[in-house]
Amino acid sequence: MTFDSSSATPLPTDLSAGAADPFGTRAVLFDLDGTLVDPAGAITSGISHALGVHGIEVPDQERLDSFVGPPLAASLASLPGVTDALIPSIVEEYRQQYLAEGMQASRVYPGIEELLSTLNAAGVTCAVATSKPTGLAERLLSIMGIRDHFAAVHGSPEDESIPHAGKGPIVGAALTAIGLSSSTTHDPASSREARVVMVGDRIFDVEGAADHGLQCIGVTWGYAPEGELQQAGAGPIVDTADQLRRALVEAGIMPPSDPPDSGAEQAEPVAAPARQVLD
Predict the structure, then answer these.
(1) Which conformational region is residue 34 in: left (phi greater than 0), alpha (psi within -120 to 50 degrees), or beta?
(2) Domains and CATH numbers, the chain
(3) How far apart are the C-alpha atoms of 72 and 55, rounded to whole Å?
(4) Is the preceding peptide bond at 70 cis, omega within 30 degrees of 0?
(5) Where does the pLDDT of residue 135 fall: very low under 50, low under 70, confident under 90, or very high at 90 and above?
(6) The dihedral of CA 73, 238, 143, 167: what is its sign?
(7) Is the pLDDT of residue 208 over 90?
(8) Helices (H), 166-202
(9) pLDDT value, residue 18
(10) Which of 33, 91, 109, 209 could form a disulfide with 216 if both were Cys (CB 3.0 to 4.6 A apart)?
């Protein structure tokens, strides 16, 4: 991974409680599935189940994986045999399966909870901006035990059968919830009002961040096809939670920590999401 730190001004190391922060608000907006939480096949298996119930041919695993990230209704509408009239019923069947089994099967990616604790301790505001409906996102974060790390959680409308406008408005709502707007975050390298970045695993995260002038750090442990994040303009792109921490330091979001001992074991790359084999 290569960091471009030419435009980043280092933060002071003394950001303890009560210390003045000359850079004002510092915040990170996180995507959810594929970034914070590994669905462990729960999303794709739920979609497969719902399609089968409705007599729709289940696509291959690569196509199913592409459904993790974008609005569900739009993804379903792209499948042969799925009509607008069928989408609400398919979505409802999927949701029931996901609520019954999928959430409990999900797991927080290695190193993410520790990173969130570090960000909180450094005074960085964390929020979630996800295409998952807000209520489901809140419930999943609570089940995973990480809801308290976030000042705000914003997702799509609760009715997943209705296509929504994409990630841009969701990112905007999350910014508003933490007291920011595009006008205060458009140039984090030169503005001392706020330093804000998005972290996500798909092109939709990059595009949603760009709508508000934000840098998007891409993570490789999610569901993006090979080369998607690079082509979308994510940068930097990281392979581990520790690399993500270092990218946030370089972006001026959090202060550097003491370097690890030379003999310390280096962090292993985050495992790729489990790919469920479908019969």
Answers:
(1) left
(2) 25-37+109-250 (3.40.50.1000), 41-105 (1.10.150.240)
(3) 18
(4) no
(5) very high
(6) negative
(7) yes
(8) 167-177, 182-185
(9) 34
(10) 209
What per-residue confidence (pLDDT) applies to 40? Answer: 73
d(CA 48, CA 65): 11
197, 31 contact by CB (below 8 A): no
Structure tokens at 39: 């669905």
CA separation for the pair 257, 136 (Å, rounded): 34
Measured CA to CA, the distance from residue 85 to residue 163 in angstroms comes to 13
Q: On the CB side of 103, how many CA atoms lie within 13 Å of its CA?
A: 18
Is the whole model's pTM more than 0.85, yes or no?
no
Q: How many residues does the chain have?
A: 279
Q: How far apart are CA 219 and CA 217, in angstroms?
A: 7
Q: Are 271 and 221 in contact (CB under 8 A)?
A: yes
Residues ≥6 apart with Cβ < 8 Å to 6: none
Which residues does the annotation mark as catalytic? 31
Give strand pairing partners of 127: 29, 152
The reported pLDDT for the residue numbered 217 is: 98
pLDDT category of residue 100 using cuts at 50, 70 and 90 = confident
Rg (CA), the chain: 19
The answer to whether the beta carbons of residues 176 and 185 sit under 8 Å apart is: no
Helix (H, G, I), strand (E, B) or coil at 48: helix
- Give dist(CA 131, CA 68) in Å, integer: 9
Contact 98, 33 (CB under 8 A): no
